[in-house]
Amino acid sequence: GENVEQHPSTLSVQEGDSAVIKCTYSDSASNYFPWYKQEPGKRPQLIIDIRSNVGEKKDQRIAVTLNKTAKHFSLHITETQPEDSAVYFCAASNSGYSTLTFGKGTMLLVSP
Amino acid sequence: KAGVTQTPRYLIKTRGQQVTLSCSPISGHRSVSWYQQTPGQGLQFLFEYFSETQRNKGNFPGRFSGRQFSNSRSEMNVSTLELGDSALYLCASSSQGSGRGETQYFGPGTRLLVL
């Protein structure tokens, strides 16, 4: 089955800095890669996703890049703000399965 | 559209008891997946139901089971509860399943504490 590794487990940055979270996956057939943000006591919410036919996708201050050859994808957050503080999860799935395999999460702390 | 709802939100049980959790997906969604979230393990997939049939199953013991009704509402059951079953149980719904590159929308979760 699919295995998703996520690094780092915690990331502390100053407000205004950039943050990068990286994930690797094992199943070369995986073709859908969403990122979820989970604030304390809240449900995970999709913030951006990318499909395997695209190398990069941006939405305002967040972007995701995908390297299919190396089987890794990354989340980039620019101009971080304190409200970006949360746990971020990457995930992967392929058309053969209807489920998501998640990484273990990255706790992002943005200090004012 | 109303979001995914889960009941109850909090539950306290003792070892050996059983528990049933409920999930109502977004209207029109036919796929419901269940996840167990714990601090050390992140989100682990339990099972997925689509049109009343279990389509995928994660690596959990047979004490964990589920079902889906004709209106797409889903329930999961845990029998003979163990201390290690204490966790946040999340369900997520999508139209066809994330294998089609569809977004999964999560419910607020049921926090289960086993004493």
Describe, in plain words, how this protein is organized in 3D.
The complex is a heterodimer of chains A (112) and B (115). In chain A, 0% of the residues lie in helices and 58% in strands. Chain A is mostly beta strands and 112 residues long. In chain A, the strands form two sheets. In chain A, strands 2, 4, 5, 9, 10 and 11 form a six-stranded mixed sheet that branches. Chain A is globular and about 45 Å long. Chain B is mainly β. Helices cover 0% and strands 52% of the residues of chain B. Chain B is built from no helices and eleven strands. Chains A and B meet through strand 4, strand 5, strand 9 and strand 10 of A and strand 4, strand 5 and strand 10 of B.
Would you count the extended β strands of chain A for me? 11
Note the beta-strand portion of chain A: over 45%
Mean pLDDT of chain B: 93
Beta-strand percentage of chain B?
over 45%
Biggest sheet record of chain B: 7 strands, mixed
Q: Helix segment count of chain A?
A: 0
Low-confidence stretches of chain B: none
Share in helix of chain A: under 10%
Gyration radius of chain A, rounded: 13 Å
Which features would summarize this protein structure in a list?
heterodimer, A: 112 residues, mainly beta, 6-stranded mixed β-sheet, 5-stranded antiparallel β-sheet, 11 strands, 0% helix, 58% strand, globular, B: 115 residues, 7-stranded mixed β-sheet, 4-stranded antiparallel β-sheet
Structure, briefly:
The complex is a heterodimer of chains A (112) and B (115). Chain A has 112 residues and is mainly beta.
How is this fold's topology laid out?
The complex is a heterodimer of chains A (112) and B (115).
Chain A: E1 4-7, E2 10-14, E3 19-25, E4 30-38, E5 45-51, E6 56-59, E7 62-67, E8 72-77, E9 86-94, E10 101-102, E11 106-111
Parallel strand pairs in A: 2-11
Antiparallel strand pairs in A: 1-3, 3-8, 4-5, 4-9, 6-7, 7-8, 9-10, 9-11
Chain B: E1 5-7, E2 10-13, E3 19-24, E4 31-38, E5 42-50, E6 53-57, E7 64-68, E8 74-78, E9 87-94, E10 105-106, E11 110-114
Parallel strand pairs in B: 2-11
Antiparallel strand pairs in B: 1-3, 3-8, 4-5, 4-9, 5-6, 7-8, 9-10, 9-11
